Amino acid sequence: MSELLNINVGDPMPLYVQLERAVRFAIATGKLRIGDQLPTVRELAVELKINANTVARVYTELERSGVVETRRGVGTFIRARHFEATTLRDRERQFEESLDRFLAESGALGFSLPEVISRLEARSQKEKRKNG
User: Fold this and answer.
1) How far apart are alpha carbons 55 and 48 in whole angstroms?
2) Are 5 and 47 in contact, with CB atoms under 8 Å apart?
3) What is the pLDDT of residues 10-19, one digit of tens each?
4) How far apart are the first and last CA of the chain?
5) Which three-class secondary structure string do you get for the chain?
6) CATH fold of 15-84
7) Distance between CA atoms of 60 and 129, rounded to whole angstroms?
8) How far apart, in whole angstroms, are the C-alpha atoms of residue 76 and residue 71?
9) Confidence (pTM)
10) Residue ranges of domains in the chain
């Protein structure tokens, strides 16, 4: 699982934010699929070498936002069609907020908007070759 969830303890971004983004990214890119079971809090904490409370916090937030569901005694799973629970307007608002953060972080790293667009286009081509 650690190969799917890139966490960098040297990054100034809080670990819980990195982990939540990594899970959401893995879902968005199809590396984690609906119905996939996530490791237990303890297992993931040991694997990523981070505090179990951090993992628990992320799982709680993902469950609160409808991304995962916890089945008592069974485990935590990627929730089926969590995106249908929100309206199109909510999803668009969340996307715009995510895009704003992405562009701000890219700018802070010294990348201009044309450079970001160029890299996104290159990534899109790479994904097309890989998937098809």
Assistant:
1) 10
2) no
3) 888 899 999 9
4) 24
5) CCCCCCCCCCCCCCHHHHHHHHHHHHHHCCCCCCCCEECCHHHHHHHHCCCHHHHHHHHHHHHHCCCEEEECCCEEEECCCHHHHCCHHHHHHHHHHHHHHHHHHHHHCCCCHHHHHHHHHHHHHHHHHHHC
6) Arc Repressor Mutant, subunit A (1.10.10)
7) 36
8) 6
9) 0.62
10) 15-84, 86-131
How far does Cα 110 stand from its chain's mean position?
A: 23
Reported as a single tens digit per residue, the pLDDT across 27-55 is: 888 889 889 999 999 999 999 999 999 99
Backbone angles phi, psi at 30, to 5 degrees: 80, 5
CA gap 132, 73 in Å, rounded = 39
Residue 9 CA to residue 3 CA, distance in Å, equals 15
The pLDDT tens digits for 70-127 are 998 899 999 875 455 556 777 788 888 888 889 989 999 999 999 999 999 999 998 8
